[in-house]
Amino acid sequence: MQLSLGQLAQLVGGALEGPAERMVSGIKGINEADPSDVTFLANPKYAPALAQTRAGVVLVSQEQLVPAGLAVIRVKNPYLAYAQLLTEATRRPYQPLGVHPRAVVEDSARLGADCSVHALAYVGPEVELGPRVVLHPGVYLGAGVRVGEDTVLHPNVVVYHGCLIGRRCIIHAGTVIGSDGYGFVPDGRRHFKIPQVGIVQIDDDVELGASNTVDRAATGRTWIQSGVKTDNMVHIAHNCVIGANSLLVAQVGISGSTTLGQNVVLGGQVGVAGHLKLGEGAMVGGGSGVAQDLEPGAVVSGYPVMPHRLWLRTRGLVKRLPELFKRVKDLEARLGQERKD
Q1: Predicted confidence (pLDDT) per residue in 257-311, tens digit
Q2: Pairing with 40, which of 27, 102, 168, 335 sits 20 to 30 Å away (CA)?
Q3: Helix H or strand E encompassing 319
Q4: How far apart are CA 144 and CA 174, in angstroms?
Q5: Beta strands in 264-328 (DSSP E)
Q6: 238 tagged catalytic
């Protein structure tokens, strides 16, 4: 990357305060940056670092106070501007590989223009790949899978038969899409398996982290809507619906037939029981257990969940329980002595 500060300000849509002709070529953290680097300040608690930074320019909010002489570009959202700049700086022209000689593509599969199918990938019968799909080594696509344009499947991703993946998706290594939902019914002697005959549908612009598992529906579909982003090691059970633009952090587990509205956020290690509805914009703190429906916009934490502020107060009281227990015992002893007297 070689940009003048004037070009950089234009790229991120910001207002430059500093020499437009100065050149920068790298992006680093605020403490590591030197005069050839861009850096950013997104969290106000790091504002004191502005006095010591050697960066050539800093992306800051529109209201941020800065030391005299420091070159800055003022933007609405410094973190977003940083992400946009980093995306541009790391962008590489796409160069299609074609089909590697050691990949296996069944004759009935249909590949769009400029696909890249790496060694040891398997593309099953009746699979359809849109233009510029990338399948890294070890990817398995079962019969009838459809993958939309510009989607990337990283090594060892497995997509079972009949599942649908949209455009511009990123599926990270080791993720399994379309394995059987967990369905059994006791017959008096053993657990009889319920056939899982539905599919998984993943809409456009979804990113799934490494080692996710998304179960196929018992009937119908397990549906991950557009813009959903998951962290690593997330499990989504059969017939769940994950609303558009929701965020699921690491080790989230969602039981069957639960529906999340749009823009729901589940913190790390949240567990959600089955057949629930979490309203649009609900937020659940890390390590919480959700056993009831949540209203739109609810902010909850705890196990089981309660309003987040109440949970914070409760956690504060827990630390005082030994002291409160001792005081109660002392009061009981005094009352007992008074009765004797």
Answers
A1: 999 999 999 999 999 999 999 999 999 999 999 999 999 999 999 988 878 888 7
A2: 168
A3: none
A4: 20
A5: 265-266, 271-272, 277-278, 283-284, 289-290, 299-301, 306-307
A6: yes
Instruction: Please say whether the beta carbons of 296 and 277 come within 8 A.
Output: no
β-partners of residue 272 are 254, 290
- Helix or strand or coil: residue 211? coil
List the alpha helices (DSSP H) in 4-130: 5-12, 78-90
For residue 333, the 8-state DSSP code is: H
Catalytic-labelled residue, pool 154, 161, 238, 308: 238
Residues whose CB falls within 8 Å of the CB of residue 243, separated by 6 or more in sequence, listed in order = 225, 228, 259, 260, 261, 262, 263, 264, 280
Q: What is the pTM of this model?
A: 0.87
- Vertex 175, ends 172 and 179: CA angle to 5°? 155
Closest to 246 (Cα-Cα) out of 269, 215, 274, 223: 223
Q: What is the pLDDT of residues 86-102, one digit of tens each?
A: 998 888 889 999 999 99
Instruction: Please tell me the distance from the alpha carbon of residue 57 to that of residue 66, in angstroms, as a whole number.
Output: 12
Coil vs helix vs strand at 145: coil
